[in-house]
Structure formats: C-alpha cells, structure tokens
Amino acid sequence: MRFGFVINEEKDPGYVFSKRAAEVVCSKGGSVVFDTACRGSVLEGISGVSFGSYSDCDILFSLGGDGTFLRTAHIHHDGKIPLIGVNLGTIGFLTEIHKDNFEDAVDRLLAGKYTLEKRTQLDVTLLSEDGRIKEHGVCLNDAVIARGANLHVVSLDLLIDHDHVERLSGDGVILSTATGCTAYCLAAGGPIVKPDLDIFMVTPICPHTLHKRTYIVSGDSTVEIIIERFSEPPIISLDGRPNIELAYHDRILLKKSEQDVIVAKLGYENFYQTVRQKIRARGSFYEDGEK
Which residues lie closer than 8 Å to 272 by C-beta, 6 or more apart? Predict the structure, then answer.
C-alpha cells in the first residue's frame, strides 16, 4: 500500500514525527511518498521512501492540524485518493488520528479496516457587476464574506434558488458545508450537523436585526450573495486562504462542487463524540481526560 505524506513543517519541525511515521509504514511493507521539497532532509535515507507526485497513492496523510487538512484537500487531492488526517496541532477536528495511535491506524489501513466517506465541497464564483468572472474556487469548510477593516456594517442581498430571501446587514455571512459546521459557522451560532450530509448553510455574522437564523440549503440548490452597501470594501476568503477584496454589486454564486473529497474513516470516534471531546469551550462539554 502506498501512502502520501503532506507535512506542515511548522507542526513537525525537523520532520521528527514524519520520519518516525514513515519508518512505521515501511517496516510493515508499505511505501511512502513525500513532496519533492522534502529532498535533502532526514527523510531521504529511509528505505521505501520516494519523492514526487501523489497521483498513484492509495491513501493521503495530512500531517498537521485542520488547516493542513484543508490545504491538502485543496492542493493535493484529486477527488479519488482518500484523505485522512494526523493531528499534530491543537483541536484537530478534521484529523481523526492522534500521533500516539499512528501505528494502530496504519495497521487498520493495511488490513482494509476503514470506510470511505464523501464530503461535499462548495463551488464559488465571484462575478463583477457586469458579469465578468473575477475569481473561482472550491472550499471544503466555508466561504466567508466579511466587512472590511472599518467597524461599519456591510449590507448583502441573499438569494436562494434565484428567490430573494432578505437583506443581511451586519459583519458578513458564512457559507458553510456540513463539514464546516463545527468551524466558524458554529462560533457564529450555526447548527451542528453530520458532516456527510449533502447540504450547506448560510449563517449571518452579527446581524443588526431582532432575529438571527441559519438557512439550511439542499445540495442541489444555488445561493447568490450580492454586495450592496459598505463603507470599507468587504472581503471573501475560501477555507481561510488569502482574502479577495469585493466591490459594489459584486455577485458571489455558490453551489455544490462536482468534486467531493473522499475521507478515510477508521472509527476511533463517532461524530458526536468528537464534538463533545474536541470543542470544550462551551460549559456543557467535558474537560481533558474525561469521558
């Protein structure tokens, strides 16, 4: 079995964990592929390790935190190779494997004791007022439209399936997949939903109104956001990638991407256990070490 390793060097300085993980895989008859940027490092002397493309890998490991997982899904994932995360960060909500149980995880993968789960992505197109395509991209977690640096509200028109729903005035809006429901969407008061659901959500950020509700949209729907009023140009970011400045009457079109992300699941925890154990900032959740 051939494993690709995508490494966050900030989370693994000197490739200490990556080296040990590669040695574990190779000692069990597997092989490991690293990016060519890792040539000349301590990884080069390991038997069974190569450097190059991940295209012929069976499983792609993301070694880092949630940001590394999202980056791996965006840059290296082709929609066919299953992706699984090893948590070298803090919360690691998207990363199922803890570094202390990495060897057991490899044993399960080599034995075929895993399932595959499809995760919906958002397809996002940014259009200017005259209909010109300014940007296009996909995201696994969320697309966030937020006010500029000035502490003034931004006004956005929300349309779902071409029907005008309402004008949102506030700090912006989060357009989230089911996978992203436990990220910014949750912090903004959005719902907790199973990440394999074929839906996405529209959650206002600090709306200046007497009500605040998330719209849950079916996977075959389209959502449109039109930039109406602002004092400082608002921005959009996909999965935390670099901000894109928005202009008056820009239109953001969102729909389900044709390409899903395939996630390998080992069954260490179910989704609701993960919510309980990894998001403890709310008073009802348990502290470290408790069940």
Answer: none
CA 11 to chain centre: 17
Angstrom CA distances, 213 to 171, 174, 189, 206, 247, stand at 15, 12, 8, 11, 26
Check 35, 58, 66, 250 and give the catalytic one: 66
66 is catalytic: yes
2-119+261-278 topology per CATH: Rossmann fold (3.40.50)
Query: Going residue by residue through the chain (291 aa), what tens digit of pLDDT does each one get?
Result: 999 999 999 999 999 999 999 999 999 999 999 999 999 999 998 999 999 999 999 999 999 999 999 999 998 877 789 999 999 977 778 999 999 999 999 999 999 999 999 999 999 999 999 999 999 999 999 999 999 888 899 999 999 999 999 999 999 999 999 999 999 999 999 999 999 999 999 999 999 988 889 999 999 999 999 999 999 999 999 999 999 999 999 999 999 999 999 999 998 878 887 787 777 644 444 445 444
Query: What are the sequence ranges of the domains in the chain?
Result: 2-119+261-278, 122-256
122-256 under CATH 2.60.200.30, yes or no: yes
